[in-house]
Amino acid sequence: MENLEIGEIFALYGKLLELHGENEFRAANYLNAPFKFKKLSERLADLNEEQILSHPALSKSLVSKIPEVLHRGSFTELDEIISQTPSGLIELMSVRGLGAKKIRELWTKLGIESPGELLYACKENRLISLKGFGEKSQQNIVKELEFRELNLGKILFSALQPTAAQLFDFISNLACISRVEYSGAYRRLCEIISKLEFVVVCNNLEQLKQELSGLGLQIKEESPSQLNYELKPGFEFVLHIANANNFASTLFRTSASAAHLSKITMIREHASTEEEIYQENGLHFIRPELREGLNEIELARQGIIPEAVSYSDVKGVLHNHTLWSDGRNTVREMAEFCIAKGWEYIAICDHSQTAAYAGGLSIDRVLQQFNEIDKLNVELAPFKIFKGIESDILGDGSLDYPTEILAQFDLVVASVHSNLNMDEERAMQRLTAAIENPYTTILGHPTGRLLLSRKGYPVNHKELIDICAANQVVIELNANPHRLDIDWRWIAYAVTKGVKISINPDAHNLKGLLDMQFGVNVARKANLQKDFVLNALPLNEFERFLKDLRQSKGL
User: Fold this and answer.
1) Looking at the predicted structure, is the pLDDT value of residue 35 above 90?
2) What CATH number does the domain located at 155-302 have?
3) How would you label 20-41 residue by residue, b for 16+ Cβ within 10 Å and e otherwise?
4) Residues 141, 456: Cα–Cα separation, whole Å
5) pTM of the full predicted structure?
């Protein structure tokens, strides 16, 4: 477990203490645990019990429980208070805008114990007169609950990946299984998955069912061609049962979207491969991740679809945070990790000065970081560390430093982090001003969305891309699996306008650098070729790009 994960377990306990009206100071000790643990220089999981219990930076009430948390992911007091709490109230804690104190008010004054009861109460206008609420907050809660309801039973690809891999390995090693492949949206590398699907060739269905029941999985529905299990409430795990003769056709039918299948005139049941199915329809092969029913059929009819960017095409990683702001590792550690991965360069883009919540860099600290980077570049050559910044886009669209400081960065990622509750007109005005700033190199996470958590502010994507094209601004495909922003569905339009895409991890620790894979996944869904990926440029070409860009902007 990472330190932040441990901290979140303690924070849950703090929230529950607040919910039950316990001492505020005691609750605060646990609520602040994520912040405290995030700042530690060492991983708690790497320490022995004696080192943990004598840790000088943490209170006894925290350290005494850490060994138990590391052992089983919880601790006795947390288990006890969870047992005393309606499960629906814990669900409400994931609703933005509802803290434990507000939930307690809803619970004790209105008897609300679940998201469904809260939504009904809002529809009945019962929150308007409740202390701490009002008409505006009631409207916001309705929006959050409806968004949550819409996404219930869905899981991020990244969150599902470990479970999917474990199930794949388990099934493929069963004696009754001779072949297994991923299918459905997971095979298409969709960023959000509503059910996990496999296609299997099985010679003993009863044995397969018995083996899966040993995992604690209960059949929800079954037929000779399909077994449906419930992995978690509202989320299914589906096995499509095939044989050696119809495996390819079953895999094809179950892994393509309905829109894609509607454009395929013939699927021969005993086709030997998926390639053969496309050939019989007069088409070149279409990779699974493209089978969404967009323009892939037309492209395959015209000729072989060009290969999209791959993970091995990435030469450097841009937009990364370090201990200078809210990251977990030093500049050196981030750079050395990249060297070990075979990358040629990294751009350090810590938060700018307005982002006080994230340890944003004052001008003095910017210059101090420059000095550190200069020394490391001498030591680590030919690897290159670029001096970047993630500059907050302020309310009026301006960037977060005076011109003389912006001019000293190698690149500037401009991002919105505050006042996200904007209508489209306001958002476009703010983003346009930032894009038109000649020092903006990359527009960071353009909509501010968090998948399954926050919709993000509304933008006119075509207009936004057009403005980036006119101002030679690169658009970020933020590879953090909670963002994946810009949405891949708009990348094709960006390419037609000549706008480059930068696949950036927005890494806050070494593990975060590996999120590049999720960015590459959705770039492949967009059929983005490496020629349009900024950080697929080798180091010398990337340096030339930055130099030419500055010259073309008259900087």
Assistant:
1) no
2) 3.30.460.10
3) eeeeeeebebbbbbbebbbebe
4) 16
5) 0.83
CATH of domain 311-552: 3.20.20.140
Q: Which CATH number is associated with domain 3-150?
A: 1.10.150.110
For position 253, what pLDDT does the model report? 97
Under DSSP, the state recorded for 215 is T
Report yes or no: 205 and 241 within 8 Å, Cβ to Cβ. yes
What letter represents residue 501's amino acid? Answer: I
Are the C-beta atoms of 335 and 513 separated by less than 8 Å? no
Map out the domains of the chain as residue ranges: 3-150, 155-302, 311-552
Phi, psi of 391 (to 5 degrees): -85, 125
Residue 437 near residue 417, CB atoms below 8 Å: no
Dump pLDDT digits (tens) for 173-204.
Answer: 999 999 999 999 999 999 999 999 999 999 99
* Span 454-460, average pLDDT: 92
Place of tokens 């006795």: 76
Cα–Cα distance between 164 and 231 in angstroms, integer? 11
* Distance spanning both ends of the chain, measured CA to CA: 46
What is d(CA 494, CA 135) in angstroms, rounded to the nearest whole number?
A: 40
Mapped to the 3 state alphabet, what secondary structure does 418-437 carry? CCCCCCHHHHHHHHHHHHHC
What is the C-alpha to C-alpha distance for residues 183 and 409, in angstroms, rounded to an integer? 45
